[in-house]
Specification:
By secondary structure, the protein is of the alpha/beta class. It is built from twelve helices and twelve strands.
Length: about 300
Amino acid sequence: MIISCVEPLGISENHFKELKEAFAAKGHSFRYFMDRREDESSLAERMRDCDIAIISNIKLGSSVLSQCANLKMLSVAFTGLDHIDLAYCRQHNIEVQNAAGYSTTAVSELAVGLMLDVMRKVTSLDGAIRQGGSRGAFLGRELRGKTVGIVGTGAIGIATMRLLKAFGCTLLAYSRTERDEAKALGAEYCSLDTLMQRSDIVTLHVPMTAETHHLVGAAQLALMKPTSILINTARGNVVDIDALAKALNEGKIAGAGIDVYEKEPPLEGSHPLLNAPNCVAVPHIGYATREAFDIRADIVIDHVWDFINKQ
């Protein structure tokens, strides 16, 4: 089979060479690319004759997939799959495997880090001291004793709960499925409206689906306390970005920590969240740690071998 890894995935060239030799020993051709190109013509060129393609979060639609007549399997180095045309894959019997679980620790740690940054103004005060300023009259807030609402109690939501429990937080939860593991951590399941009303911090950990698109919009933000903050390390379109910017600008909520947007960064300078007060914005780094990338590489290659061995 011909296997094409269309982007570097944080894998060293030496490791790629080892993988190429391992696949060749079993009679397969493995090629890799050490640069990331997101334009459709480059993707089509890199995938056109392959049986298996490895890709991360680059948008992959039917216009590219339709040029890949031999494609039988996609090994996706990402947790979410909303950037892949899954309907086309189903119609053409292309197996799709994601890299579930590789970034669970990375994302949950960033979620808590954003909470601390927003509540203690770490980023903005770093700028202040570099410009000769001081704390002034600012008083931060502690995580201990705060009520945190976790929206989505999958693996990342549960991992975030464990960290928050260690900080001494009270846990609320909203999810399509209630999990015994969350309840064992002391989480109380409730409706989304109740969670928004009672929480000092709301942190989002749901996938992007038709049901979760703008799950948090103007109506939900209006339920939050003026002292509360919103954290989003899930998917950008789970939140109505314009409604969130408006809530921040009008002081309806105290702050936000955002890692994901309606599109992948870079963002235009006019983006509403970049001009909203008390918003810590980072360029989609939740999944991007050395440890997570090493786990991810193992998962995607294991998926490729599993597929080959089933043939």
